[in-house]
Amino acid sequence: MVRQITFLEALNMPAPTMDIGPYITDAFSADGYCPEDERQALERKYAPILEVTDKFDRRSVSYQLSKNDALHSWLKYKEAFSAELVDILLDEMGAVPGDLVMDPFMGSGTTALACQMRGINSVGFDILPLSAVSIMAKANVMRYDAAEIARVIRDFRALKMPDDYAGRTPYITITDTAYPEFNERFIQFATDWMAASAYSALAKNLFTLCMVNALEGCSYTAKSGQYLSWDSRSKKVIEANVQRAKAGRRLLPEHRCREVVGNIQEAVTVELSRALSDIEAIQAGGAGDSGATIDFRQRSALFELPRMEGDSLRGVITSPPYCNRYDYTRTYALELVYLGLGEAEIKRMRQALLSCTVENKPKIEAIRDSYAETGARDRFEYIHGAIEANAAFREVRQALSLRKAHGDLNNNGVIRMVEGYFTELAFIFAELYRICKKGATVAFINDNVRYGGEIIPVDFLSTSFAEQFGFTAKRVYCLRQQKGNSSQQMKKYGRAALRKSITIWAKE
Fold first, then answer.
1. Residue 224's pLDDT is what?
2. Predicted TM-score of the model (pTM)
3. CA dist list (Å): 195 to 19, 134, 160, 304
4. Among residues 472, 478, 501, 95, which one has the least CA distance to residue 316?
């Protein structure tokens, strides 16, 4: 008889023999300008558990594999990972119905939905209201009245906006003139119509999600890295070029985000029809009727985890915002404004998110106050002391400070961002260890980064923090497809391939 090997037994086995040389960083500081001994020590320490794998690829750790999936495609969330990846990790950690799995950065809810389909309970956090709308819509797939959704589609398709309707969808500075005139008016008209209707709360929320999912394709904008990219047909760009011409400045180049800007009524009808098709198929198959619960909390994991009961989680599967300067409050500005946020609310949200932009201010005092409120000041000092004692982290901060003095950073806020990013993650790692049961497994998806010629090994540095708080590092899955770094850095410092990894830790 062949005995099935458990996940923890498999993790205790050596990683498969393969050439990991191209995936080990041999120089962290361009031109040897800064000390890198501690980062090199991390490479030596964790190289034995680095596994270059074909289990996952770049599509697995992005939205690409989910964009045509039933349910998961209801929100185009570029930062999402695939349900297929979650299923593989759930299998590997041996999660079974009745277990509790957490995603502290829930995003569009892929971990929670994949767990629900398998009868596994989940809990998680996210500040963005996009998450609340998405998870409510998807988690209730078995509760929809398909006939009601069909009526919504019929009535919405027949909706006529009066010629003299004067409403306009709200905007903030960075979304002003984002839509053609008809779309700008019809978005608000349709929203008012739905709010005044007698449809159920579930149907109204699904309509909101379908509207949110259609906004970008019906606008003159596109999500592009850290910012919104603008179409040269937009009023914003046209007016900017008029002013540039008057001042004798070079005009903004011709650029189209898409060949055809969608009609919002047609686009939302398509989204609703696709959702109805998914609802009917899932309800007919009973795939979503597992009885598992999804406990979503629209709050920050950084401040909520310390308040949770210990020894309750079977596992964690998550992907935090990457340390890449991407500002979700800008790239998702259309969606956030549609959901009712104004300039001030978006600015506050930007500061509340995990520090991953150069505008983020330190949260350490707020974290200290939060621990003090619950009588856990000593625990704060323990965690903070461990962070400060991490030699590789100290080296990274020193290297970035040297690069700043040398004029190598294109924005000095990078230092504050990197310090805040790892400090906040380390507090989360410490609390996850406390909350996890013995035998629990944690999977974190992340990218390594480079700033000012300095490579930051996010995967190994995070793993070193996790070990400080008690986790055992079991495996670092590395995708075969490494990513490059910015053209500006390649031009100045040469190309450096950067790992994209899934770190696996266990509470033994």
1. 84
2. 0.91
3. 59, 18, 16, 32
4. 95
Q: Tokens standing for 235?
A: 């009023």
- pLDDT (0 to 100) of residue 77: 81
Residue 96 pLDDT more than 50?
yes
Place of tokens 């047909």: 233
Ordered by start, the domain boundaries in the chain are 7-127+296-323+357-506
Domain 7-127+296-323+357-506, CATH: 3.40.50.150
Q: Name the nearest CA neighbour of 338 among 179, 114, 140, 113.
A: 179
152 contacts 203 by C-beta, under 8 angstroms: yes
Instruction: Encode pLDDT of 322-369 as tens digits.
Output: 998 889 999 999 999 999 999 999 999 999 999 999 999 999 999 999
C-alpha–C-alpha distance, residues 82 and 59, integer Å: 8
Beta-sheet strands, E only, within 49-181: 50-53, 100-103, 121-125
Q: How many angstroms separate the first and last alpha carbons of the chain?
A: 28
Q: What are phi and psi of 495, to 5 degrees?
A: -75, 140
Phi and psi at residue 54, to the nearest 5°: -105, 5
Label residue 483 by pLDDT band (50, 70, 90).
low
Q: What is the pLDDT of residues 39-75, one digit of tens each?
A: 999 999 999 999 998 876 655 554 444 456 778 889 8
224, burial (CB in 10 Å: exposed 0-12, middle 13-18, buried 19+)? exposed
Q: How does pLDDT run across 253-269, given as a tens digit for each residue?
A: 999 999 999 999 999 99
Quote the DSSP letter at residue 317.
E
Element housing 475 (H / E): strand 472-479
Kind of pairing between the strands at 227-230 and 50-53:
unpaired
**Contacts with 420 (C-beta within 8 Å, 6 or more apart), sequence order:** 355, 360, 361, 362, 363, 364
Dihedral pair phi/psi, residue 358, rounded to 5°: -70, -10
Q: Strand, helix or coil at 374?
A: coil
- The answer to whether the CB of 216 falls within 8 A of the CB of 76 is yes
**Burial classification of residue 45, based on how many CB atoms lie within 10 Å of its CB (0-12 exposed, 13-18 middle, 19 or more buried):** middle
- For residue 102, the SS3 value is strand
Q: What is the CA radius of gyration of the chain?
A: 24
d(CA 355, CA 378): 24
**CA distance linking residue 50 with residue 163, whole number of Å:** 63
Check if the beta carbon of residue 496 is closer than 8 Å to that of residue 455.
yes
Distance in angstroms (rounded) separating the CA atoms of residues 326 and 323: 8
Q: Are 316 and 141 in contact (CB under 8 A)?
A: no
- DSSP codes, 201-250: HHHHHHHHHHHHHHHGGGSSEEEETTEEEE-TTSHHHHHHHHHHHHTTPP
